UniProtKB/TrEMBL annotation:
PANTHER family with a match to the protein in the record: 2-OXOGLUTARATE (2OG) AND FE(II)-DEPENDENT OXYGENASE SUPERFAMILY PROTEIN-RELATED
Keywords of this entry: Dioxygenase, Iron, Metal-binding, Oxidoreductase
GO biological process terms held by the UniProt record: gibberellin metabolic process
Protein name: gibberellin 2beta-dioxygenase
Amino acid sequence: MIESNPPLLHNYAELLRHSGDQRKGHEVTMEECELPLIDLSGLRSDDEGERIACATAISRASAEWGFFQVVNHGISLELLRKMRREQIKLFKAPFERKATCGLLNNSYRWGTPTATCPKQYSWSEAFHIPLTKISEEACYGEFSPLREVMEEYAAAMQELARLLAGILVKNLGQQKGVFEEDCNESTCFLRLNRYPPCPILPEIFGLVPHTDSDFLTILHQDEVGGLQLMKDSKWVAVKPNQHALIVNIGDLFQAWSNDVYKSVEHKVMANGRVERYSIAYFLCPSYDSLIGSCKEPSIYRKFTFGEYRKQVQQDVKKTGHKVGLPGFLL
């Protein structure tokens, strides 16, 4: 059996041995869905009715699905292609180099260090980079061509995220949200993901089930597929659309909207034959930003983003999984 880069197979086998989990693989038949597809050119229309219809579609999808996909979003396909090419070059580097040389603010991660059993393990590797670090030349080493394209990519994603967040805030009858002042280049993140081929059990997670802890996430994925989300109390597979970006609501927007917008549980399943790449942009506030509600009575107690992140980390360490918003209900 071929060892992967990074050494996920060895890591998983050790976890399996220590946990005593002797699961047998089985194929799972999965219903496939197409996310709501929204053409953002409607926002630029001269027709007020078309602009309103587009904004309404964004809000409806955020409330009913927690996920949607967008086309004509204003980010050039050439920029997306360039970013993907440089991302692939980065991940093709030897594992030892990625893990030890401090690349991209020493943000390299692989597997799941906190996992105590196979169901908590993610068969993937990633660079999770604060936007404040992507301009620093020292972070790149021999991968210097990545710096320029990543700066351009992050700026484009930041602009799109703020546009979408502004629409969601306005459609709740609010003039402004906490994100407008507190979500900027100093607080947001990019995550470059690679899911290597997985030669073992077919139900292994590329990324374990979770909700995102931000306001919203914009995902650029390839055509391989593997993303699944919880819809009507069952898992559905998202049909990949390489021409669209995927947007999903995070926990902070669900809390701020008083549960109008939904932060939906999702996961990535590993693929036995081919690798998968994606890039996620996370719209986050500063750690001391207070996340209140846009209306009273509020469902959740007030909390800061820093407090929320700390609680998530404590829960994962204690129980092996994220509790999230239910732990902040009044």
